Each structure stands twice: as structure tokens, then as C-alpha cells.
């Protein structure tokens, strides 16, 4: 609950082996948000299946919110529509339970700039980790260039050392 109240925290991951109580913890958070005073306009719970495509996840989120978007198979169009709906709805908490694989929040239509928070439960730490969106990467890349004083050799060295790393805290630590 402390992380949900923190404006800096946008994504919260709960991970652990089968049966440790990840879903139970998420249900307690869900119930507390439903019954308590909170600053969120929407609270939605979505259970993910083992093989869930971006379009299937979009459908589940839309169904949970009881809204309608195009049935078109274009996930980019659907993501844009879902993003607009979330932005219009205000501050939200979206709980994704039992996530099996990493996915791009941007591809789904859940943008960090939309004022929402994401809580996900997973058996895998890799899924629960704070992976970067292209927006995150752009902000960090601009900060890195400023930090390197625009010196191309320094930028190339830093870029090579960070190649293949997609964990946001690692990138933030590299800036320090």
C-alpha cells in the first residue's frame, strides 16, 4: 500500500513460487483499495492466462473496465484506444494476476504517463521486474548524453556497456 501511495512508483511486482500467497497479497491490496479512502478513480483486476497475447490482454482489460474498443486485429490501434480510455478515466490501479511472460505495456496501451499504477503477480522475477518502455529509455538516453557532455567517445563507451540490459534500475544506477 505504501508503494501505491508513492507517486514515484508506477509498477509494483509481486513474485514467488507457487502457493506463497502472491494472489492473496494482491487480493488484500484490492480489498483495501475498494473499502478504504484512496486517490484512484478506477481499480481493475485482470487474471492472465499462461499463453496471453497482447490482443488477449487488451480484451481482458477492456472487459474488466466494461468499455468497448474496436474488434480490429490491429494491436497498435487497440493500444492507442485503450490508452486514451485510461487517460480519460483518471488515476487507476490495474492488478494483473498470474503473469507468465514479459510484455510491453506500451503495446497493450498502458502508458506510465496516464496516471495509473500497475500491480502484477508472477512466478518469475523476470516478469515482475521493472522493464523499460521506449519512453523510459528515451528519458534515460537524454540524461546519459547530458551526463557525457555530448562527447561521442564517452557516449559510445557507455552505450556499449549498457547493450542488452533492459532493467530500469540498472540504467538508473549507470547514471549515478
Automatic annotation (TrEMBL):
Q: Give one Pfam hit by family name.
A: NB-ARC
NB-ARC domain segment(s): 2-134
Q: Name one GO molecular function term.
A: ADP binding
Name the InterPro entries for this protein: NB-ARC, P-loop_NTPase, Plant_NBS-LRR
Keyword Cell division listed? The answer is no
Alphabetically list the UniProt keywords.
Answer: Plant defense
Q: Answer yes or no on keyword Ligase.
A: no
Q: Which PANTHER family match?
A: AND NB-ARC DOMAIN DISEASE RESISTANCE PROTEIN, PUTATIVE-RELATED, NB-ARC DOMAIN-CONTAINING PROTEIN-RELATED
| Annotated protein name in UniProt | NB-ARC domain-containing protein
The taxonomy runs: Eukaryota, Viridiplantae, Streptophyta, Embryophyta, Tracheophyta
Amino acid at each position: 500500500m505504501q508503494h501505491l501511495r508513492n507517486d514515484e512508483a508506477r509498477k509494483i511486482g509481486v513474485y514467488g513460487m507457487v502457493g506463497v500467497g502472491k494472489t492473496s497479497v494482491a487480493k488484500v491490496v484490492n480489498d483495501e483499495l475498494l473499502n478504504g479512502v484512496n486517490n484512484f478513480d478506477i481499480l481493475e483486476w485482470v487474471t492472465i492466462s499462461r499463453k496471453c497475447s497482447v490482443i488477449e490482454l487488451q480484451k481482458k482489460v477492456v472487459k474488466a473496465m466494461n468499455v468497448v474498443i474496436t474488434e480490429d486485429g490491429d494491436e497498435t490501434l487497440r493500444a492507442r484506444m485503450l490508452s486514451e480510455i485510461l487517460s480519460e478515466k483518471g488515476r487507476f490501479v490495474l492488478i494483473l494476476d498470474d503473469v507468465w511472460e514479459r510484455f510491453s505495456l506500451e503495446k497493450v496501451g498502458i502508458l506510465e504517463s496516464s496516471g495509473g499504477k500497475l500491480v502484477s503477480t508472477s512466478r518469475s522475477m523476470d516478469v515482475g521486474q521493472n522493464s523499460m518502455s521506449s519512453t523510459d529509455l528515451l528519458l534515460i538516453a537524454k540524461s546519459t548524453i547530458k551526463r557525457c557532455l555530448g562527447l561521442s567517445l564517452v557516449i559510445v563507451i557507455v552505450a556499449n556497456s549498457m547493450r542488452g540490459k533492459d532493467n530500469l534500475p540498472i540504467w538508473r544506477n549507470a547514471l549515478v
